[in-house]
Structures are given as C-alpha cells and as structure tokens.
Amino acid sequence: MKINNYREHLKSLLNTEVNVIIDRPINSVHPTHNDIIYEVNYGYITSLIALDNEYQDAYVLGVNYPIKEFKGEVKAIIHRINDNEDKLIVAPSNLNFEIEEIKRLINFQEKYFEIEVIKWWFFIIIFYHLSFNIYQIL
Question: How many domains does the chain contain in total?
Fold first, then answer.
C-alpha cells in the first residue's frame, strides 16, 4: 500500500471500533529490547497491513491489567515522523485522553522517535479554519 493511501486509511479508522489482539500485555518485556517494559497493553489489528508489511500496531489505553484481546474505539494515531511505523491508540469508547496524556502513557517506547498525535478534533479545527477562510474570500 502506498504511504498516502495507508495514512488516509488510518485516518478513516478514527472514532471507529476495532478489535486488538494483544501480543505484548502490560508489564511484558519487548522481544528484542530487554530495556523496554510495556506500560500499557500493546498489540495489533488484523484489518490493516501497515507499511512494514505486518498487521497494524495499536496501544490500548485505559485498561491497566494484562489482557489478550480488546474491542475499543480508535482515539488517535501516533505518526512517527522519523519512522514508517505509525500506531493506533485504542481505548474504551467512554474514555478520552488529551494529547499530552497519550504522549506520557506511550513514552516508554515512543521516546526513541519523533512523533505527532493525530486526533479527530484536529481535522474538525482544520476544516473549520479552511471553511472560514473560504467564506471570507467569497
């Protein structure tokens, strides 16, 4: 999948329900980096192949005990600016997380990358801003 199509598909998942298979439960050790301990549940969704040709990775927030599978809402996308592996943030539908809180919760692994957090309201603000500017031009 081309990078633009992939990123557009990721954005289309915002606020939708997905099923995450957990392969690295909370408090587990990274398979190749023994210094990384997972502070949240981490896994993948099978409905999308990422740019690394693996299933799309996802952090599960708001469930603070080890789980094997989780059905929840995509709350945000972690875009790694200096890497091709973007991640989903999935949580129970009744929970919301501020951008800084998301960054703090996933810092145990994302501290090695330059990231931006993309949330649904980000698109609403841009759309409003663009609409307002177009209205002023008319």
Answer: 1
- The rounded distance, in Å, linking the Cα atoms of 127 and 131 is 6
**Amino acid making up residue 130:** L
Domain that holds residue 110: 3-137
Both structure tokens of 23: 């392969």
Distance CA 94, CA 66 (A): 20
Which residue has tokens 């990775």?
A: 57
pLDDT digits (tens, 9 = 90+) for 7-60: 888 999 999 999 999 999 999 999 999 999 999 999 999 999 999 999 999 999
Sequence-ordered alpha helix ranges (H) in 13-82: none
Q: Which residues, 6 or more positions from 129, have their beta carbon under 8 angstroms from its beta carbon? A: none
- Listed in sequence order, the residues at least 6 apart from 128 whose beta carbon sits closer than 8 Å to its beta carbon are none
Do residues 112 and 80 make contact, with C-beta atoms less than 8 angstroms apart?
Answer: no
Q: What is the SS3 assignment for 117?
A: strand
Global pTM reads: 0.85
| Residues facing 69 on adjacent strands | 21
Token output for 77: 């996308």
